[in-house]
Amino acid sequence: MKKLLVCLMILFGFNSAYLPQLHHVADAQQKPTPPYAKWSKVAMEKTKEKYPNAQVVDYLYVGRKNGDTTSTEKFKLWLKENQKEFGVYVDIEFIKETEQVVNVTYTETAR
Question: Can you give the residue range of the structural domain that contains 94?
């Protein structure tokens, strides 16, 4: 098997010059964890508590709203319950200093 692989590499001109390029491709696929990842998990958990019979089909990070002492992370989750699909905007307000959740609000949407 090794001989076959070596023959194919020689036949198609593969050499070590390609190895650094392959290394960079692997690095490009590893993305850093976004700062809102923790809040995505909270949004999913809280939404599953509020809609226990629904499946989360998709989600979108909308953004952050900063206040003086609190911040609000905003998400849109797409849910499916029975044959009905609908969106839910989830806003998670938390104290900036401690990251303690103050309030979670849900706004349903058909779009």
Answer: 37-109
Rounded Cα–Cα distance for residues 56 and 70 (Å): 27
Helix then strand then coil, in percent of the chain rounded to 5, is: 35, 40, 25
pTM, two decimals, is 0.71
CATH number for position 53: 3.10.450.390
Look up residue 45 and give its two tokens: 């958990």
Question: What is the arithmetic mean of pLDDT over 20-32?
Answer: 61
**Per-residue tokens: 68:** 């003086």
Q: Which residues contact 99 (CB under 8 A, 6 or more apart)?
A: 38
Alpha carbon distances (Å) from 83 to 19, 53, 65, 86: 50, 12, 34, 10
